[in-house]
Amino acid sequence: MSEEHQYLFLDFEFTMPESKTKPSGFFPEIIEVGLVSVMNDEVHDQFSAYVKPNKFPILTDRCKVFLNITQEQVDEGISFTELVALLKEYDRLCPSTVVTWGNMDMKVLKHNCLQANLPFPFTGEHRDLAMEYKLFFGKQNQTGLRKAVQEYGNEGVGKPHCALDDAFTTYNIFKLVEKDKKYLAKPKPPTIGERIDVSQLLKKFAL
Questions:
Q1: CATH of domain 6-206
Q2: Residues 173, 179: Cα–Cα separation, whole Å
Q3: Partner of 190 for a Cys bridge, out of 26, 50, 94, 194, CB 3.0 to 4.6 A?
Q4: pTM surpassing 0.70?
Q5: CA distances from 112 to 20, 52, 55, 80, 118 (A)
Q6: SMART domains under this entry (predicted)?
């Protein structure tokens, strides 16, 4: 019996400074998590929570407006230590691949773990779906999550910059890209019409 495999579609939202001029020592901290666990092509579990930042606990007005988030929501969230422990539990379930849109989520998680002196919770592969999407479609620049799903003729799940909605949207794009990859890897056999140049055939019989 083959071992079960889990895909973890993960999205974080972060703190941000009020302006481009960052306060001394500022770094982005995770303040919201959205996670979708998928096994055997089905959603196995989902989780979302606000997370209390450690270093800069007071959110800037820019951050609150951009993410449509309140100070109270974050103050009542789980601690970063609890978040890492929870992610570790998902990682322990079975061999896992973490899928994110872009590389920022993993970068910030690693840096936040370093700052909090906590071990990084994931042991498996990480896939940056935005980079895969860029390479697959031969694009010059990376496409935003919501724009990518619209390019497929769909709408994203829920609201942009809501971590769980963005995690589900990432999962939806993943399914579409994987389907396209399989289609290209196994092209359908040509139809009779494609094998025979009908115009040449008509010319032959017209003579």
A1: 3.30.420.10
A2: 10
A3: 194
A4: yes
A5: 21, 12, 10, 8, 8
A6: EXOIII (SM00479)
Say how many C-beta atoms besides its own lie within 10 A of residue 49's C-beta: 18
13, 44, 82, 178: the catalytic one is 13
For residues 174 and 129, what is the distance between their CA atoms, to the nearest angstrom?
Answer: 7
Assess contact for 78 and 51: CB atoms under 8 A. Answer: yes
Could you report the per-residue pLDDT of 52-84, keeping only the tens digit for each? 999 999 999 999 999 999 999 999 999 999 999
Can 161 be counted among the known catalytic residues?
Answer: yes
Give the strand pairing for 96-100 and 42-50. unpaired
Active site residue 126: no
Catalytic residue among 44, 161, 178, 194: 161
Identify whether the C-beta of residue 69 lies closer than 8 Å to the C-beta of residue 31: yes
